[in-house]
Amino acid sequence: MTKKAVIVFSGGQDSTTCLIHALPLYDEIHCITFDYGQRHRAEIEVAQQLSKELGVAVHKVLDTTLLNELAISSLTRDNIPVPSANSSEESVPNTFVPGRNILFLTLASIYAYQVQAEAIITGICETECSGYPDCGDEFVKNLNNSIELGMDYKLRIEAPLMQLNKAETWALADHHNQLDLIRYHTLTCYNGIKGSGCGNCDSCSLRAKGLNEFLENRADTMNNLKIKLEL
Length: 231
Prior knowledge:
By secondary structure, the protein is α/β, with parallel strands linked by helices. It has nine helices and five strands; from the N terminus they run E-H-E-H-E-H-H-E-H-E-H-H-H-H.
């Protein structure tokens, strides 16, 4: 029986790391990228380039621009400034797009049902998630349960990075011999700049901090990764 997985794929560090981690584990990978009218739309082109380079069987870009109309965020509104990494926001940052992960994982699950995939893979991570409420393990498990009940279909939502910090995420890329691909060809920056990005937004800050920690403590970080994932 063909093992199939569907990856929620943005072309960023986390989802691309999930993709390279999943490739040897599944016979057939389907990537889904969502066009929700996001501010950093270059990510769609990056995702298409990366999926082609990595030999993904099917890559779909789905129109979900309705989310742009409903969800007010600095990632959906050009007139809302993206906060810098050192800005002091006490609540959830304005880069949070309410309902995004709920919608994306639900739509990916519907697609998985149609192609008879056994797993949805997402780059969601709760250890360094900028305070987003839809990035926790509890959220993923509860949504997974609701989707299984609602579709009467056995489906796993996998979040391989859930318990990893950014340094360990870099280590996972290195484990698969794709450190340079992730470092130079993914787009994580909230301002839409590939690679190291703008260096000012929270996403770039987390990415750079994690890379520095990994490069400074490579052996220890690789060991920690192996313990967590039993590689």
